[in-house]
Amino acid sequence: MIELRVASSTDDLEAWAMLKSRVVPDEPITVEQLLATDEPARLLLLAELNGVLAGCGIGGLSGFGGKAFIMARVLPEHRRRGVGTELVRALAEHGRALGRTGVNSFVDAHDGASMQFALQLGLEEVDYQLEQVRIVGGEGEPLVPMGIEIEAVGERRDELLVELWPLAEEGLLDMPLPGSVTFPRATWLRDEATRPEGSFVARERDQIVGYAGLTEHANGDATAEHGLTFVRRDRRRRGIARALKQTQLRWAELNGVVELVTWTQKGNEAMQALNASLGYQNRSRALTMQGPIP
After folding, report:
1. Is the residue at 189 inside a domain?
2. What one-character-per-residue DSSP string does 125-140 give?
3. pLDDT tens digits for range 212-240
4. Domain that holds residue 201
5. Dist. CA 46–CA 132, nearest whole Å
6. What is the Cα–Cα distance from 103 to 124, expressed in whole angstroms?
7. Strands 223-231 and 259-265
8. What angle do CA 152, 203, 186 make, to 5 degrees?
9. What is the pLDDT of residue 22?
10. CATH code, domain with 160
């Protein structure tokens, strides 16, 4: 028998985080991160099969395309027994209750069974997210373009994120996503630069012209994840983004961070190439699946 319940208690959230991290080890999450990123429209579900935890699901409003977001994850040993189908049914009902008729979801490119499941639900691949990783070590001094000064966000995080917001909006508009981006200012202020000492801004004549954020990772302090990286449109192709990333690498080496993780989407091959030139290696690929709510 399959039973679903809303994950609401601390024990439930711990179970949800454990299940998600087991199914998608390249994208682990902690209870603290779940609590910090809670939103009114989000629904977290746990699924039990004959009394045993078998899967988890998340539903809410997608950040792009004006659609709902749903994701069902089932432990490999419990698949092909209807758990994923029940999770999708409940998450789809939630998406419709939010007034959405379309859905975005993600599938590991190497998970053929999950891909087939998504296709059977009427979804199709429209985009991908590429994970690149860098083992930190042997970092040189950053090559900063003439006239540019780079400073850490540090203790001025809240103040600088407010100042950066107009530039962030410009960068978000330029992201090649399959649909218009919905990224509230409150989400930016909450989620970006959660490792502020490793997040940096670039200034030219006291004006901010670039930013590279670093955020906490579920694997602990020895791993960090790149947040958004952007440069003002009229200052691009001058080496500012490279200098910001080199500064982050140097900071990581001096502060005990041994691995940096970053995700970029299809259409942003320029950033992928920049990362590769700095020694980042491709590790995994998540396919964006889109279609009507099942």
Report:
1. yes
2. EEEEEEEEEEE--S--
3. 999 999 999 999 999 999 999 999 999 99
4. 137-257
5. 30
6. 11
7. parallel
8. 65
9. 95
10. 3.40.630.30
